[in-house]
Specification:
This protein is α/β, with parallel strands linked by helices. The strands form six sheets. Strands 16-17-18-14-13-19-20 form a seven-stranded mixed sheet, sandwiched between helices. It has a six-stranded mixed sheet with strand order 10-9-8-11-12-21, sandwiched between helices. The longest helix is centred in the first third of the chain and has 23 residues. The protein is globular and about 75 Å long. It starts with a strand and ends with a strand. The structure holds 1,4-dihydronicotinamide adenine dinucleotide and magnesium ion (MG). Magnesium ion (MG) binds next to loops.
Length: 508
């Protein structure tokens, strides 16, 4: 039986670094517009809760259209012939590298702020979220000095009598609106800021209303790192109040959004009105495929990690498990045993293996899906309900023998809920793995080289992991097929998303 490790607020505060304690102790925060810490023009504020305790953690400004206007104007001024456009590539590289050094020096502080805000484990956040963000700022710092065009020799008809030379320039796309969700607030912010700044763009960042704090802390580091005013503006607000006016603003050149497919489609339509460039990283229902040769215990551990990491609040969480019928019962039973043994608790408690979901809304949504799955005929192997009555904890849940047509098999749950079913052969599993509107990630668990190589090209998915899941690197592009979005985060490909291409022809 899972138990909740309790940690009083007083004890939690004792674990904080001095800088995290000072930041959290402030309670009321301001947002960053044109280098100044500002209240919302209309004076409103939003409450931010600690999801492990449901207590008030912070108040942040509730930005509205006037604040969006100021932030966009500041970003435009910094870009359009402003200070950032005069930075040399080497100066942009240095600024990004300095920011990475400051993040590294404050890694524990950032992880603790993220943990209190989101509910995730501070230790894991430091090792994964903050570490990968640091690597990404450094990786993109390197690209700032390596953005290259090309020269071209055109084949114009000789009869025109033109002597020409031609070249291709790469230019920053301009002002970027970065809209970020609550599951990896600090890391997803880096996935947008790092390539945008390396390319020479300026940014208006809107963190999620549930988790704005690590972005505001990053704002302090950005100021310390010596970025000119207006290069990065951070507005806190909700989707309708701040996100919608930001993404529909005609002075925005590029939107980079991570979040729900529903909001991604709204933003996509709005973007088309202004022809705003767009990267969308949306939902998923990623399959985990275990072939019959794989060791049962290793498959169970791998599949459990694929779904329960970050409490299942991962866009590429391995939420659909397909196990070959020969080992199905054993693998599912082992995952159930792992789920039942996981300890739950406050993200600052090193004993806790799983924290709360981010919000009351997500708690309700995930519990409703569990009830729905059981009503749809799924067999409950582990978990199945909320844990305790304080904090948004949900027991790691395993549903077995679920029909492919069940809503829990088709819709993104975004919580620690695994849906499992057996398969017959490779063709069967490839078809069923692809039978979803999504195509973000997939994993194959097997040592059978031929089977793996047969399956990899069949999977309609932006990432395929073999004998691992959700394995990310700054250099590896990440993004979806189908309704999981378009454009890439990470890698050189994400940098291209912040660059325009200009052809220049000179008649001599
Ligand atoms: P959401 O898509 O509404 O929120 C993501 C971000 O978009 C937030 O910053 C939000 O303020 C902003 N936003 C919302 N409406 C907007 C609008 N009309 N214009 C511009 N920005 C807007 O996600 P939500 O409601 O927090 O979660 C709902 C579901 O979405 C989750 O249960 C999960 O299934 C999915 N989701 C997927 C994520 C991913 O990583 N792909 C991350 C978060 C949620
Ligand atoms: Mg929403």
């Amino acid at each position: 039986m899972t138990e909740i490790v309790r940690l009083s607020t007083a004890d939690a505060v004792k674990l904080l670094t001095p800088r995290a304690a000072a930041f959290i102790g402030r309670v009321s925060h301001k947002m960053l517009i044109d280098g100044s810490w500002s209240e919302a023009a209309a004076g409103g504020a939003m409450e931010v809760l600690n999801p492990a305790t449901e207590e008030l953690l912070a108040r942040v400004p509730a930005a509205g259209p006037q604040d969006v206007e100021r932030a966009v104007a500041a970003a435009r001024a910094a870009f359009d012939g402003g200070p950032w456009s005069r930075f040399t590539p080497e100066e942009r590289q240095r600024a990004l590298w300095t920011l990475a050094d400051l993040i590294e020096a404050n890694a524990q502080t950032i992880a603790q702020i993220e943990s209190l805000d989101n509910g995730k484990s501070a230790a894991v956040a430091q090792m994964v979220d903050v570490k990968l963000a640091t690597q990404l700022y450094r990786y993109m710092a390197g690209w700032a000095t390596k953005i290259e065009g090309a020269t071209v020799e055109p084949s114009f008809p000789r009869a025109l009598g033109l002597e020409v030379t031609a070249f291709i320039r790469k230019e920053p796309v301009g002002v970027v609106a970065a809209v970020v969700p609550w599951n990896f607030p600090f890391l997803i912010t880096a996935m947008k800021l790092a390539p945008a700044l390396a390319a020479g763009c300026t940014v208006v960042l809107k963190p999620a209303e549930q988790t704005p704090l690590s972005a505001l802390f990053l704002g302090e580091l950005i100021a310390e790192a010596g970025f000119p005013n207006g290069v990065v503006n951070i507005i806190t607000g909700d989707g309708p109040g701040a996100g919608a006016p930001l993404t529909s603003h005609p002075a925005i050149d590029k939107i980079s959004f991570t979040g729900s497919t529903e909001v991604g489609k709204i933003i996509g339509k709005v973007a088309m009105d202004n022809m705003t460039r767009l990267t969308l990283e949306l939902g998923g229902k990623s399959p985990v495929i275990v072939l019959p040769d794989f060791a049962v215990a290793d498959a169970a551990a791998g599949a459990a990690g694929a779904i329960f990491f970050n409490h299942g609040q991962v866009c590429c969480a391995g939420s659909r498990l397909f196990v070959h019928k020969k080992i199905y019962d054993n693998v599912v039973a082992d995952i159930g045993a792992i789920a039942e043994k996981m300890s739950m608790g406050h993200g600052l408690d090193p004993q806790a293996q799983m924290g709360p979901l981010v919000s009351a809304e997500q708690l309700e949504r995930v519990c409703d899906y569990i009830d729905l799955g059981r009503a749809e005929g799924a067999e409950l192997v582990a978990g199945g309900a909320r844990a305790g009555n304080q904090g948004y904890f949900v027991r790691p849940t395993v549903l077995s023998n679920v029909a492919d047509t069940a809503r829990v098999s088709r819709e993104e749950i975004f919580g620690p809920v695994l849906v499992a079913s057996p398969f017959e052969d490779l063709d069967d599993v490839a078809r069923r793995a692809n039978d979803t509107p999504y195509g973000l990630g997939a994993s194959i668990w097997s040592k059978d080289l031929s089977a793996v190589h047969r399956l990899v090209p069949k999977l309609r998915s932006g990432s395929v992991w073999v004998n691992c899941h959700s394995a990310f690197d700054a250099a590896l592009p990440f993004g979806g097929y189908k309704q999981s979005g378009f454009g890439k985060d990470f890698g050189r490909q994400s940098l291209d998303g912040y660059l325009e291409t200009k052809s220049v022809v000179i008649a001599l």
